[in-house]
Amino acid sequence: MILPSIKGTLFLVTSIVSHLAALPTNVINKCPQPSELNPVPPFFIYGHPEDCQQFFLCVFGTPYLMSCPATTSFSELLGVCVDRYSPQDICAQENAVRECSRGASLLAHPQLCHRFYNCSLVVETSSILGRYQDECPYPQYFDTLEKVCKPYSEVSCLDRLEVKDKCEYSKAYECTDVEHCEDCQAVFPSCQGLTDGIYPNPEKLWTTFYLTCTDERVATFTCPPFLDKPGIFSPRAKKCVSLYEVSSSDNFLGRKPTCVSKLPGTYPVLQDPRVYYSCPGPQVAYCPEGSVFSQQTQTCNAP
Protein backbone atom coordinates (compact mmCIF):
# COMPACT_ATOMS: atom_id res chain seq x y z
CA MET A 1 0.00 0.00 0.00
CA ILE A 2 1.32 3.45 -0.89
CA LEU A 3 0.81 5.85 1.99
CA PRO A 4 1.98 9.41 1.27
CA SER A 5 3.26 11.43 4.22
CA ILE A 6 1.87 14.88 5.03
CA LYS A 7 5.15 16.44 3.91
CA GLY A 8 5.02 14.47 0.66
CA THR A 9 1.41 15.50 0.11
CA LEU A 10 2.24 19.21 0.56
CA PHE A 11 5.11 18.84 -1.92
CA LEU A 12 2.74 17.15 -4.36
CA VAL A 13 0.19 19.98 -4.05
CA THR A 14 2.90 22.62 -4.56
CA SER A 15 4.20 20.82 -7.64
CA ILE A 16 0.75 20.60 -9.18
CA VAL A 17 0.00 24.29 -8.58
CA SER A 18 3.35 25.22 -10.10
CA HIS A 19 3.24 23.02 -13.19
CA LEU A 20 -0.35 22.08 -14.05
CA ALA A 21 -3.41 23.90 -15.21
CA ALA A 22 -6.86 22.68 -14.28
CA LEU A 23 -7.79 19.73 -16.47
CA PRO A 24 -11.12 19.89 -18.28
CA THR A 25 -13.35 17.01 -17.20
CA ASN A 26 -16.94 15.99 -17.47
CA VAL A 27 -17.03 14.51 -13.98
CA ILE A 28 -18.65 16.17 -11.01
CA ASN A 29 -16.46 18.63 -9.16
CA LYS A 30 -16.50 17.35 -5.59
CA CYS A 31 -13.83 19.75 -4.38
CA PRO A 32 -14.68 21.97 -1.39
CA GLN A 33 -15.03 25.52 -2.73
CA PRO A 34 -13.41 28.60 -1.20
CA SER A 35 -15.77 31.03 0.49
CA GLU A 36 -15.59 34.18 2.59
CA LEU A 37 -15.74 32.12 5.76
CA ASN A 38 -13.33 29.49 4.44
CA PRO A 39 -11.03 31.05 1.79
CA VAL A 40 -8.63 28.07 1.90
CA PRO A 41 -10.66 24.86 1.48
CA PRO A 42 -9.37 21.73 3.22
CA PHE A 43 -7.25 19.17 1.39
CA PHE A 44 -9.47 16.70 -0.50
CA ILE A 45 -9.02 13.92 -3.07
CA TYR A 46 -11.57 11.67 -4.73
CA GLY A 47 -11.54 8.83 -7.24
CA HIS A 48 -12.25 8.91 -10.94
CA PRO A 49 -15.68 7.37 -11.61
CA GLU A 50 -14.50 5.33 -14.62
CA ASP A 51 -10.78 4.69 -14.11
CA CYS A 52 -9.64 3.02 -10.89
CA GLN A 53 -6.03 4.12 -11.41
CA GLN A 54 -6.85 7.84 -11.58
CA PHE A 55 -8.06 10.31 -8.97
CA PHE A 56 -8.62 14.04 -8.54
CA LEU A 57 -6.61 16.25 -6.23
CA CYS A 58 -8.38 19.40 -5.09
CA VAL A 59 -6.39 22.63 -5.01
CA PHE A 60 -8.34 25.72 -3.96
CA GLY A 61 -11.59 24.20 -5.23
CA THR A 62 -10.22 23.00 -8.58
CA PRO A 63 -9.82 19.25 -9.37
CA TYR A 64 -6.53 18.14 -10.94
CA LEU A 65 -6.38 14.71 -12.57
CA MET A 66 -3.69 12.44 -11.12
CA SER A 67 -2.68 8.81 -11.68
CA CYS A 68 -1.54 6.14 -9.27
CA PRO A 69 1.65 4.20 -10.13
CA ALA A 70 1.34 1.21 -12.43
CA THR A 71 -0.19 -1.93 -10.85
CA THR A 72 -1.99 0.19 -8.23
CA SER A 73 -5.46 1.68 -7.86
CA PHE A 74 -6.84 4.61 -5.95
CA SER A 75 -8.80 3.71 -2.83
CA GLU A 76 -11.35 6.41 -2.10
CA LEU A 77 -12.03 4.83 1.28
CA LEU A 78 -8.38 5.11 2.38
CA GLY A 79 -7.43 8.10 0.22
CA VAL A 80 -4.23 6.42 -1.03
CA CYS A 81 -2.98 4.24 -3.88
CA VAL A 82 -3.10 0.52 -3.05
CA ASP A 83 -2.02 -2.66 -4.81
CA ARG A 84 -4.43 -3.36 -7.63
CA TYR A 85 -7.01 -6.07 -6.89
CA SER A 86 -5.85 -6.36 -3.28
CA PRO A 87 -8.47 -6.45 -0.49
CA GLN A 88 -7.88 -2.69 -0.07
CA ASP A 89 -8.71 -2.05 -3.74
CA ILE A 90 -12.30 -0.95 -3.15
CA CYS A 91 -12.66 0.37 -6.71
CA ALA A 92 -12.15 -3.03 -8.35
CA GLN A 93 -14.40 -4.65 -5.76
CA GLU A 94 -17.15 -2.12 -6.41
CA ASN A 95 -16.98 -2.89 -10.12
CA ALA A 96 -17.45 -6.58 -9.33
CA VAL A 97 -20.29 -5.80 -6.90
CA ARG A 98 -22.07 -3.82 -9.60
CA GLU A 99 -21.81 -6.73 -12.02
CA CYS A 100 -22.99 -9.17 -9.35
CA SER A 101 -25.98 -6.95 -8.57
CA ARG A 102 -26.93 -7.08 -12.26
CA GLY A 103 -27.33 -10.86 -12.04
CA ALA A 104 -23.84 -12.12 -12.87
CA SER A 105 -22.65 -15.30 -11.15
CA LEU A 106 -19.02 -15.80 -12.18
CA LEU A 107 -16.80 -13.10 -13.64
CA ALA A 108 -13.30 -13.35 -15.05
CA HIS A 109 -10.69 -11.29 -13.26
CA PRO A 110 -9.81 -8.36 -15.55
CA GLN A 111 -6.06 -8.72 -15.03
CA LEU A 112 -5.15 -12.17 -13.70
CA CYS A 113 -5.96 -15.33 -15.65
CA HIS A 114 -6.03 -17.60 -12.60
CA ARG A 115 -8.49 -15.49 -10.58
CA PHE A 116 -12.20 -14.83 -10.92
CA TYR A 117 -15.14 -13.28 -9.10
CA ASN A 118 -17.77 -15.54 -7.54
CA CYS A 119 -20.92 -13.57 -6.78
CA SER A 120 -22.20 -16.30 -4.45
CA LEU A 121 -19.34 -15.89 -1.97
CA VAL A 122 -20.54 -14.32 1.26
CA VAL A 123 -17.13 -14.15 2.94
CA GLU A 124 -13.61 -13.75 1.57
CA THR A 125 -11.94 -17.05 0.67
CA SER A 126 -8.51 -15.73 1.64
CA SER A 127 -7.15 -12.72 3.51
CA ILE A 128 -5.13 -11.93 0.38
CA LEU A 129 -8.16 -11.93 -1.90
CA GLY A 130 -10.79 -9.20 -1.88
CA ARG A 131 -14.57 -9.40 -1.77
CA TYR A 132 -16.07 -11.98 -4.13
CA GLN A 133 -12.58 -12.95 -5.35
CA ASP A 134 -11.52 -16.57 -5.72
CA GLU A 135 -8.86 -18.39 -7.69
CA CYS A 136 -8.43 -21.62 -9.57
CA PRO A 137 -6.35 -24.51 -8.21
CA TYR A 138 -2.75 -24.33 -9.39
CA PRO A 139 -1.90 -24.43 -12.28
CA GLN A 140 -5.39 -23.97 -13.75
CA TYR A 141 -6.80 -20.81 -15.36
CA PHE A 142 -10.32 -19.39 -15.51
CA ASP A 143 -12.05 -19.82 -18.86
CA THR A 144 -14.10 -16.73 -19.73
CA LEU A 145 -16.42 -18.58 -22.11
CA GLU A 146 -17.28 -21.65 -20.04
CA LYS A 147 -16.79 -19.77 -16.74
CA VAL A 148 -14.94 -22.67 -15.11
CA CYS A 149 -11.37 -23.43 -14.08
CA LYS A 150 -9.60 -25.56 -16.67
CA PRO A 151 -6.05 -26.79 -17.39
CA TYR A 152 -3.90 -23.83 -18.41
CA SER A 153 -3.21 -25.33 -21.83
CA GLU A 154 -6.93 -25.21 -22.65
CA VAL A 155 -7.54 -21.56 -21.70
CA SER A 156 -6.97 -18.46 -23.82
CA CYS A 157 -5.95 -15.67 -21.44
CA LEU A 158 -5.76 -12.95 -24.12
CA ASP A 159 -4.62 -9.80 -22.27
CA ARG A 160 -4.90 -11.35 -18.80
CA LEU A 161 -1.62 -12.15 -17.04
CA GLU A 162 -0.61 -15.82 -17.19
CA VAL A 163 0.84 -16.54 -13.75
CA LYS A 164 3.15 -19.57 -13.82
CA ASP A 165 4.77 -19.65 -10.35
CA LYS A 166 2.81 -21.56 -7.73
CA CYS A 167 3.71 -19.00 -5.09
CA GLU A 168 1.80 -16.34 -7.05
CA TYR A 169 -1.40 -18.29 -6.37
CA SER A 170 -2.50 -16.90 -3.01
CA LYS A 171 -4.14 -20.13 -1.83
CA ALA A 172 -1.52 -22.56 -3.16
CA TYR A 173 0.56 -22.55 0.03
CA GLU A 174 -1.11 -22.27 3.41
CA CYS A 175 1.03 -22.96 6.47
CA THR A 176 -0.80 -23.60 9.74
CA ASP A 177 2.31 -23.84 11.93
CA VAL A 178 3.20 -20.14 12.17
CA GLU A 179 6.39 -20.70 14.17
CA HIS A 180 7.84 -23.11 11.61
CA CYS A 181 6.48 -21.80 8.33
CA GLU A 182 8.88 -21.98 5.42
CA ASP A 183 9.02 -19.37 2.71
CA CYS A 184 6.81 -20.42 -0.21
CA GLN A 185 9.72 -20.24 -2.66
CA ALA A 186 11.63 -22.76 -0.52
CA VAL A 187 8.76 -25.22 -0.84
CA PHE A 188 7.70 -24.45 -4.43
CA PRO A 189 10.65 -22.96 -6.35
CA SER A 190 10.09 -21.14 -9.61
CA CYS A 191 10.48 -22.97 -12.93
CA GLN A 192 10.66 -19.74 -14.91
CA GLY A 193 13.29 -20.06 -17.62
CA LEU A 194 13.83 -23.80 -17.06
CA THR A 195 13.25 -26.47 -19.69
CA ASP A 196 10.99 -29.41 -18.95
CA GLY A 197 12.65 -31.97 -16.71
CA ILE A 198 13.58 -33.09 -13.20
CA TYR A 199 15.45 -30.71 -10.89
CA PRO A 200 16.69 -30.63 -7.30
CA ASN A 201 15.00 -28.15 -4.99
CA PRO A 202 17.65 -25.37 -4.83
CA GLU A 203 16.61 -24.60 -1.25
CA LYS A 204 16.74 -28.25 -0.16
CA LEU A 205 19.77 -29.79 -1.86
CA TRP A 206 20.62 -33.39 -0.95
CA THR A 207 17.29 -33.98 0.76
CA THR A 208 14.33 -36.18 -0.05
CA PHE A 209 12.65 -33.34 -1.99
CA TYR A 210 12.85 -32.66 -5.73
CA LEU A 211 10.70 -31.08 -8.42
CA THR A 212 9.68 -31.33 -12.03
CA CYS A 213 9.16 -28.44 -14.43
CA THR A 214 6.58 -28.60 -17.22
CA ASP A 215 5.88 -25.50 -19.31
CA GLU A 216 7.68 -23.49 -16.56
CA ARG A 217 5.21 -24.78 -13.96
CA VAL A 218 6.39 -26.63 -10.88
CA ALA A 219 5.36 -29.91 -9.29
CA THR A 220 7.10 -31.15 -6.14
CA PHE A 221 7.82 -34.73 -5.12
CA THR A 222 9.44 -36.76 -2.34
CA CYS A 223 11.82 -39.64 -2.94
CA PRO A 224 10.43 -43.00 -1.79
CA PRO A 225 12.20 -44.89 1.03
CA PHE A 226 15.14 -47.04 0.00
CA LEU A 227 16.19 -50.07 2.07
CA ASP A 228 13.99 -48.93 4.96
CA LYS A 229 15.66 -45.51 5.00
CA PRO A 230 14.76 -42.14 3.42
CA GLY A 231 15.57 -41.78 -0.24
CA ILE A 232 17.71 -38.77 -1.19
CA PHE A 233 17.58 -36.82 -4.45
CA SER A 234 21.06 -36.53 -5.92
CA PRO A 235 21.68 -33.29 -7.88
CA ARG A 236 24.58 -35.04 -9.63
CA ALA A 237 22.72 -38.17 -10.73
CA LYS A 238 19.41 -36.26 -11.03
CA LYS A 239 17.52 -39.13 -9.47
CA CYS A 240 16.58 -40.60 -6.10
CA VAL A 241 19.31 -42.66 -4.47
CA SER A 242 19.91 -44.43 -1.17
CA LEU A 243 21.90 -43.01 1.72
CA TYR A 244 24.71 -45.39 0.69
CA GLU A 245 25.27 -43.25 -2.41
CA VAL A 246 25.35 -39.98 -0.46
CA SER A 247 28.46 -38.57 1.18
CA SER A 248 28.19 -37.35 4.75
CA SER A 249 29.54 -34.01 3.54
CA ASP A 250 26.44 -33.61 1.34
CA ASN A 251 23.99 -34.89 3.96
CA PHE A 252 24.95 -35.74 7.53
CA LEU A 253 22.88 -38.93 7.20
CA GLY A 254 24.94 -40.08 4.20
CA ARG A 255 26.57 -43.49 4.52
CA LYS A 256 28.60 -43.70 1.31
CA PRO A 257 31.48 -46.20 1.83
CA THR A 258 35.11 -45.31 1.18
CA CYS A 259 37.85 -47.09 -0.76
CA VAL A 260 40.64 -45.52 1.27
CA SER A 261 43.30 -48.19 2.14
CA LYS A 262 41.34 -50.87 0.25
CA LEU A 263 42.67 -52.99 -2.60
CA PRO A 264 40.70 -53.24 -5.83
CA GLY A 265 37.80 -55.58 -5.24
CA THR A 266 34.23 -55.86 -4.04
CA TYR A 267 33.18 -55.41 -0.41
CA PRO A 268 29.95 -55.64 1.59
CA VAL A 269 28.64 -52.64 3.47
CA LEU A 270 28.95 -53.65 7.12
CA GLN A 271 25.87 -51.70 8.24
CA ASP A 272 23.68 -53.44 5.67
CA PRO A 273 24.85 -56.65 3.87
CA ARG A 274 22.20 -56.07 1.19
CA VAL A 275 24.52 -53.34 -0.12
CA TYR A 276 28.00 -53.83 -1.59
CA TYR A 277 30.55 -51.69 -3.38
CA SER A 278 33.55 -52.07 -5.64
CA CYS A 279 36.91 -50.33 -5.48
CA PRO A 280 38.40 -48.24 -6.89
CA GLY A 281 35.40 -45.96 -6.76
CA PRO A 282 33.44 -46.74 -4.79
CA GLN A 283 30.64 -47.99 -7.02
CA VAL A 284 27.63 -48.94 -4.89
CA ALA A 285 25.30 -51.80 -5.87
CA TYR A 286 22.41 -53.69 -4.26
CA CYS A 287 21.52 -57.33 -3.93
CA PRO A 288 18.13 -58.54 -5.16
CA GLU A 289 15.40 -58.57 -2.56
CA GLY A 290 15.80 -61.42 -0.09
CA SER A 291 19.56 -61.83 -0.56
CA VAL A 292 22.78 -60.46 0.94
CA PHE A 293 26.30 -60.05 -0.38
CA SER A 294 28.90 -62.69 0.47
CA GLN A 295 32.50 -61.54 0.21
CA GLN A 296 33.62 -65.18 0.17
CA THR A 297 31.66 -66.01 -2.96
CA GLN A 298 31.55 -62.42 -4.28
CA THR A 299 27.88 -62.91 -5.08
CA CYS A 300 24.48 -62.18 -3.58
CA ASN A 301 23.09 -65.27 -1.83
CA ALA A 302 20.22 -66.19 0.41
CA PRO A 303 20.92 -65.20 4.05
Strand order of the largest sheet: 1-2-3
- Separate helix tally: 3
Most strands sheet: 3 strands, antiparallel
Q: Give a count of the beta strands, DSSP E runs of length 2 or more.
A: 20
Structural class given helices, strands, pairing? mainly beta
Question: For the residues shown, what is the average pLDDT?
Answer: 85
Query: What portion of the residues fall into strands of 2 or more residues?
Result: 25-35%
Shape call: elongated
**Which ranges are low-confidence, i.e. pLDDT below 50, for 5 or more consecutive residues?**
1-22
The residue fraction in helices comes out at under 10%
Radius of gyration: 31 Å
Span from first to last CA? 69 Å
Order of helices and strands: HEEEEEHEEEEEHEEEEEEEEEE
Keywords: Chitin-binding, Disulfide bond, Glycoprotein, Repeat, Signal
InterPro entries: Chitin-bd_dom (IPR002557), Chitin-bd_dom_sf (IPR036508), Chitin_bind-dev_reg (IPR051940)
Domain Chitin-binding type-2: 28-93, 97-159
Pfam families: CBM_14
Summarize the structure.
The protein is built from three helices and 20 strands. With 303 residues, the chain is mostly beta strands.
